[in-house]
Amino acid sequence: MSEKLLVIGESRDGSLRNVTFEAIATAKKINADGEIIGLICGNENLQEQAQEMVYHGADRVITVKHDNLKTYTSEGYGQAVMAVISEESPTGVIMGHTAVGKDLTPKIASKLETGLISDATDIEMKDGKAIFTRPIYSGKAFEKKMITSGITFATIRPNNISALERDESRSGDITSKDMDISDIRTVIKEVIRKASEGVDLSEAKVIVAGGRGVKSEDGFKPLQELADVLGGAVGASRGACDAEYCDYSLQIGQTGKVVTPDLYIAVGISGAIQHLAGMSNSKVIVAINKDAEANIFNIADYGIVGDLFEVVPLLIEEIKKI
Ligand code: FAD
């Protein structure tokens, strides 16, 4: 049976986030012979973004343009997504497990009285059914889940399922859908971003995270330099945020962001369980701590026991030579 899956794209500053392409790859895995429909809501660059979705594997893309979709609101995006679902009747809806994905998908799934599998890190097919793997108990265990009836809604954790190779020879229809989204109660007038410019933490392949051991706001400067030479982003423990060394937007952990980079360098972080909840699934973990007994070494692939103020500059110097 030829099925249709809908992938809801997510953009930032007019460009699609990489997790959108990972969502398309997930949909392709579930629905190799069926149709993958992309959906982009917004008010600028929709054609370019739709084209990128096609290059990454979407068979067809629907764009919904409206000034009230410039910035995400659950009401505005909800109306657009519901209209597309009712028109297209997809068998599944996939989106990134981002702040937007976490907010939007449960609302729509509950409206449609169907299930949602959130924060999936892997997917396999068995007897034509999609089985999703997702972490539980703060990443200490994994469960496998499938939805047996209704539309399958799923959000996928960034950086876990590889996107398909971008291929400019791929073609697909791009259609725009006219919708009046003016009747909504919440309109975002302005977005003031606190986070620093540069690589997005939740999608970064390399993260250099600082803890209370960094000791001050200035102590974060060498960490930023290390992140820069590695093309990565800076993150932090809650200890560092509480001490006002950095902004809470950098916090990683149970009550912060959940990240899965290829390389996570924990600097002056003790490795409290709440911090591990946000980073323990990173592919390679390096810990720098002066306390050889620090808990972070229990999950680190590589550990450096030493003073971070000596080790980090040495690392920067050596990496610059490569
Ligand atoms: P510390 O535990 O103080 O560790 C600092 C480390 O730096 C030490 O290991 C020390 O040996 C090392 N160090 C000091 N100086 C140097 C030096 N010169 N060179 C090298 N190493 C040095 N925490 C999070 O991170 N994220 C969360 O999302 C989060 N959520 C929480 C939710 C709840 C409900 C609660 C109760 C707590 C939460 N916490 C969270 C807090 C968590 O329990 C820890 O308090 C916090 O992670 C500690 O931060 P830290 O490792 O930076 O600081």
Can you characterise this structure?
With 322 residues, the chain is an alpha/beta fold. It has 8 helices and 17 strands. The protein has helices at residues 18-30, 46-55, 74-88, 99-111, 220-229, 238-242, 273-279, 308-321, and strands spanning 4-8, 11-12, 15-16, 35-42, 60-65, 92-96, 116-120, 122-126, 129-136, 141-145, 152-156, 173-177, 206-210, 233-236, 263-267, 284-289, 302-305. The strands form 4 sheets. It has a 7-stranded parallel sheet, with helices on both faces. It has a 5-stranded parallel sheet with strand order 14-13-15-16-17. Strands 8-9-10 form a 3-stranded antiparallel sheet, covered by helices on one side. The radius of gyration is 21 Å and the shape is globular. Residues 211-213, 237-240, 251, 253-256, 268-270, 272, 274-275, 278, 288-291, 294, 307-309 line the site of flavin-adenine dinucleotide (FAD). This is Electron transfer flavoprotein subunit alpha. Residues 5-196 form the Electron transfer flavoprotein alpha/beta-subunit N-terminal domain. Its cofactor is FAD. FAD binds at residues 212, 237-238, 251-255, 268-275, 289.
